[in-house]
Amino acid sequence: MTTETTFRVMLKMHIKPGLAEEFEKTWIAVGDSVTSHPANLGQWLSRSTDEEGVYYIVSDWVDEARFREFETSDRHLEHRQKLHPYRSGGAMSTMEVVAFVAPSATVGTHAEWLAAA
User: Is residue 1 part of a domain?
Assistant: First the structure.
């Protein structure tokens, strides 16, 4: 992946109390409506360890124009409608990736690192 043109979208989603597990299952089930778009480079779902019911979704795109094209598509509207019943609020941030540093560790686990030290 070249970072020169990677456009990243980060969503912060507040999920209604008691619906987190169902939200996660639904997000996984409908995720291919995003990742099957030819301009999408992948997406991640993360649960906050600091805030109850808060999730972050990070999605990478080849560029902003292609993301905006997706954002206004029927495909995206349908995807949003499936997740909307779980949301109580949220926010979106967009950014350009300017650098990426690949991991350089040659040891696979923390225990192996300790043994090698």
Answer: no
54-69: pLDDT as tens digits = 999 999 999 999 999 9
Q: What gap in Å lies between CA 28 and CA 22, rounded to an integer?
A: 10
Note whether residue 43 is domain-resident. Answer: yes
* Residue carrying structure tokens 């300017």: 98
74-94: average pLDDT = 93
- Written as one letter, the residue type at 54 is V
Smallest Cα–Cα separation from 53: which of 12, 10, 14, 92?
Answer: 14
Say if residues 62 and 6 touch (Cβ distance below 8 Å).
Answer: yes
Tokens of 115: 């043994």
The token pair that represents 74 in the structure block: 């029927």
Mean pLDDT across 18-22: 97
pTM: predicted TM-score of the whole model, two decimal places: 0.81
| Domain extent at residue 62 | 7-116
